[in-house]
Design a protein that fits this description.
This protein is of the alpha+beta class. It has helices at 26-38, 41-47, 52-65, 87-117, and strands at residues 16-19, 22-24, 71-74, 82-85.
Length: 122
Amino acid sequence: MSEGRDGDAPRLRLRVVFGPGAMLGPGKADLLALIDETGSISAAGRRMRMSYKRAWTLVETLNTLFAAPLVSSSRGGEGGGGARLTDTGREVLARYRALERHAAEAGAPEIDALEALRRPNG
């Protein structure tokens, strides 16, 4: 999940904008990670305190944004449904997380300098 260096410490939040309405940011990356962890779109959405409909809409958006779907799902029923990241989904998530790490490392000195210029408790 996306977290600051020290809780409320200043941090970068990275969003990759591919075009109008086509983007990948920390919320969608967190949703992918939780789907991978829970095996469920609805459970991932609940963990993020979002509605089932919102979680599904984000998954549909992600699945159409890339050349191959990021999440595959099966309907519920007697055997239960589920969701999982595809190989492309795992690769997209890993590359986004790597980009976050690189940006955080490269930006740390500038963030520290900006923090030093802030008004206390501001």
